[in-house]
């Protein structure tokens, strides 16, 4: 049924009102984009137009458009004013009225997409593969010494290598970068290097080292029966010990023979006899019929005559943790004093709450009773029940059926409080000197407002890297999401800009039930600003770590084509994950154009 004149008149009025409001706000907020780099000027204007559009209740307008079979502007962020004007011209044509809209400051249909692609190429380099979406891969420490690992990543489709400044140090970082540069030359491609500043993340303090012991328990075979225990003797100081390795003096180890029996007392004073079953130039393999726990300095007594005793070398201290259960209390202190473990009575009831410090310590003074608090990526949840000048007490409300282990250096999130922790840390400033010299992109962690952005840009300017360094803003706090428009406008002083949706911390901050809405909001506003987005956190996590993707991870990849880059984290099966993602993205992009599904021809039987 054709539209009536009344319907067309009503729609024309609605469109005129929205266009007028956008232009009115455009004039009022013109000063906000004074500092924007010229290459982002049109994008900044469009972002402001879209922000005004989203501040209006346009559901009535969208309903009217739907009734006429016209676009409801759901994917028009990249040129919102141009889309509105285009619709108005169509409606005016149907009304037999010729209205002149040529002088309005808008991007025509398709220009927004072109700007997004241009800005994506600026920060990630021109794409030469059969896919638009780039792949960023977090580099493990081994990438510093294992060139084949890095080469495999590049061959499998890595476009951007991510190095996290929260781990390792300049020597390791430089070795990783050298391997990446070597691999890109060998593959005749370009790989961008992005380095994360650690940022002011709130973490638990040092819980300390436990006893220097190692437990060896016999595994069970397919029938559920206990098998033998294998222990590998290796030379002291050679490398980081694996789970079944014990360090000993190399010269003593070389004198052992296959068949030798060795007596040893474990930490409980139990005597054990273990047998040498294999000898290699780098190790000696022992077999024990029973479980045992060894400590540094334990005496190894060979039963063969004329062979002197050996001794277990320095074992790493067992990592300590605080066991927390629902209903338990935990004290968080500002002083960097030694942590105290919780004390339980013989029936398992908590007698004395455990205590641990936090960093930065000043957050203690800003805690409020009733505030929810999360530990270790949300695995443990609590609520603040008491505060004091140097500590606060938390009641644990969720910690798993058997309790949860809280270890050193685990993240703390307090989503409902502004703790005033923002900007660059001293470590960040020092690391930034290395980043500016060696990397292509700096990933700015825990940005919260425009002032944080300006602080980073000022540092880059002092280092002479403001015009050459790409900047990716990691949106991972509730405050960053609320300040997103101001953050984007402030960051447009840089010439290469991107945004990362750090879905792990962000989900904790905004709440899991709100995460989908927040994620869509970030994608929409970045699309309006023509700024490329990195889709990050737990992408193909199961495949990278265990060798098999989950069904939900495949669905996640399908959604990730809304972004311009997908980030993978490290894992033993990272090569398979990169190759898999590369292939799936190519296939998906054949039937998707950013947010719009392109329906392929289907054969029917």
From TrEMBL:
<protein>
    <recommendedName>
        <fullName>Pyruvate kinase</fullName>
        <ecNumber>2.7.1.40</ecNumber>
    </recommendedName>
</protein>
<dbReference type="GO" id="GO:0004743">
    <property type="term" value="F:pyruvate kinase activity"/>
</dbReference>
<dbReference type="InterPro" id="IPR011037">
    <property type="entry name" value="Pyrv_Knase-like_insert_dom_sf"/>
</dbReference>
<keyword id="KW-0418">Kinase</keyword>
<dbReference type="InterPro" id="IPR015813">
    <property type="entry name" value="Pyrv/PenolPyrv_kinase-like_dom"/>
</dbReference>
<comment type="pathway">
    <text>Carbohydrate degradation; glycolysis; pyruvate from D-glyceraldehyde 3-phosphate: step 5/5.</text>
</comment>
<dbReference type="InterPro" id="IPR040442">
    <property type="entry name" value="Pyrv_kinase-like_dom_sf"/>
</dbReference>
<keyword id="KW-0670">Pyruvate</keyword>
<keyword id="KW-0547">Nucleotide-binding</keyword>
<dbReference type="InterPro" id="IPR015793">
    <property type="entry name" value="Pyrv_Knase_brl"/>
</dbReference>
<feature type="domain" description="Pyruvate kinase barrel">
    <location>
        <begin position="352"/>
        <end position="569"/>
    </location>
</feature>
<keyword id="KW-0324">Glycolysis</keyword>
<keyword id="KW-0479">Metal-binding</keyword>
<dbReference type="GO" id="GO:0016301">
    <property type="term" value="F:kinase activity"/>
</dbReference>
<dbReference type="Pfam" id="PF00224">
    <property type="entry name" value="PK"/>
</dbReference>
<dbReference type="GO" id="GO:0005524">
    <property type="term" value="F:ATP binding"/>
</dbReference>
<dbReference type="GO" id="GO:0000287">
    <property type="term" value="F:magnesium ion binding"/>
</dbReference>
<keyword id="KW-0067">ATP-binding</keyword>
<dbReference type="InterPro" id="IPR015806">
    <property type="entry name" value="Pyrv_Knase_insert_dom_sf"/>
</dbReference>
<comment type="similarity">
    <text>Belongs to the pyruvate kinase family.</text>
</comment>
<feature type="domain" description="Pyruvate kinase barrel">
    <location>
        <begin position="132"/>
        <end position="266"/>
    </location>
</feature>
<dbReference type="InterPro" id="IPR001697">
    <property type="entry name" value="Pyr_Knase"/>
</dbReference>
<dbReference type="GO" id="GO:0030955">
    <property type="term" value="F:potassium ion binding"/>
</dbReference>
<keyword id="KW-0460">Magnesium</keyword>
<keyword id="KW-0808">Transferase</keyword>
């Amino acid at each position: 049924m054709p539209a009536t004149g009344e319907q067309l008149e009503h729609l024309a009025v609605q469109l005129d009102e929205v266009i007028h409001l956008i232009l009115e706000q455009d004039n009022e907020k013109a000063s906000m984009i004074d500092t924007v780099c010229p290459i982002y000027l049109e994008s900044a204007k469009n972002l402001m137009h879209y922000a005004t559009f989203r501040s209006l209740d346009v559901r009535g307008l969208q309903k009217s458009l739907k009734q006429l079979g016209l676009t409801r502007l759901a994917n028009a962020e990249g040129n919102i004013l141009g889309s509105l004007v285009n619709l108005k011209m169509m409606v005016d044509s149907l009304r037999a009225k010729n209205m002149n809209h040529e002088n309005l400051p808008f991007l025509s249909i398709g220009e927004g997409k072109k700007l997004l692609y241009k800005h994506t190429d600026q920060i990630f380099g021109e794409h030469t593969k059969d896919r638009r979406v780039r792949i960023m891969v977090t580099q493990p420490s081994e990438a510093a010494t294992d060139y084949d690992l890095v080469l495999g990543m590049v061959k499998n489709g890595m476009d951007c290598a991510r190095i996290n400044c929260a781990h390792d140090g300049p020597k390791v970082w430089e070795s990783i970068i050298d391997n990446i540069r070597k691999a890109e030359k060998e593959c005749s491609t370009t790989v961008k290097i992005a380095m994360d500043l650690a940022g002011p993340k709130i973490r638990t303090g040092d819980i300390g080292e436990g006893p220097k012991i190692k437990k060896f328990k016999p595994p069970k075979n397919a029938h559920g029966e206990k098998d033998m225990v294998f222990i590998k003797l290796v030379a002291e100081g050679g490398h980081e010990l694996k789970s079944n390795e014990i360090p000993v003096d190399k010269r003593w180890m070389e004198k052992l023979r296959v068949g030798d029996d060795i007596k040893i007392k474990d930490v409980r004073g139990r005597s054990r006899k273990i047998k040498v079953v294999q000898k290699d130039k780098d190790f000696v393999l022992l077999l024990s019929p029973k479980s045992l726990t060894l400590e540094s300095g334990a005496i190894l007594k060979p039963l063969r005559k004329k062979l002197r005793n050996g001794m277990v070398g320095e074992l790493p201290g067992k990592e300590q943790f605080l066991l927390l259960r629902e209903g338990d209390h935990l004290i968080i202190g500002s002083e960097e004093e030694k942590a105290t473990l919780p004390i339980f009575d013989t029936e398992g009831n908590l007698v004395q709450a455990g205590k641990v410090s936090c960093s930065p310590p000043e957050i203690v003074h800003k805690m409020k009773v009733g505030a929810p608090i999360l530990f270790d990526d949300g695995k443990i949840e609590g609520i603040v029940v008491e505060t004091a000048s140097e500590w606060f007490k938390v009641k644990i409300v969720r910690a798993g059926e058997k309790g949860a282990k809280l270890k050193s250096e685990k993240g703390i999130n307090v989503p409902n409080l502004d703790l005033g922790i923002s900007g660059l840390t001293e470590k960040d400033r020092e690391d930034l000197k290395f980043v500016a010299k060696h990397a292509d992109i700096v990933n700015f962690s825990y940005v919260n407002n425009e002032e944080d952005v300006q602080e980073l840009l000022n540092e880059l300017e002092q280092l002479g890297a403001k015009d050459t360094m790409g900047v990716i803003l990691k949106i991972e706090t509730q405050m960053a999401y609320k300040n997103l428009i101001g953050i984007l406008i402030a960051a447009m002083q840089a010439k290469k800009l991107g945004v990362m949706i750090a879905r792990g911390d962000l989900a904790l901050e905004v709440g899991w039930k709100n995460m989908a809405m927040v994620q869509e909001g970030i994608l929409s506003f970045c699309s309006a600003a023509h700024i490329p987005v990195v889709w990050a956190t737990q992408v193909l996590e199961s495949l990278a770590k265990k060798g098999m993707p989950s069904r939900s991870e495949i669905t996640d990849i399908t959604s990730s084509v809304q972004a311009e880059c997908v980030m993978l984290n490290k894992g033993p099966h990272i090569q398979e994950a990169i190759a898999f993602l590369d292939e799936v993205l190519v296939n998906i992009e054949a039937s998707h154009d950013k947010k719009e599904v392109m329906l392929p021809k289907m054969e029917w039987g």
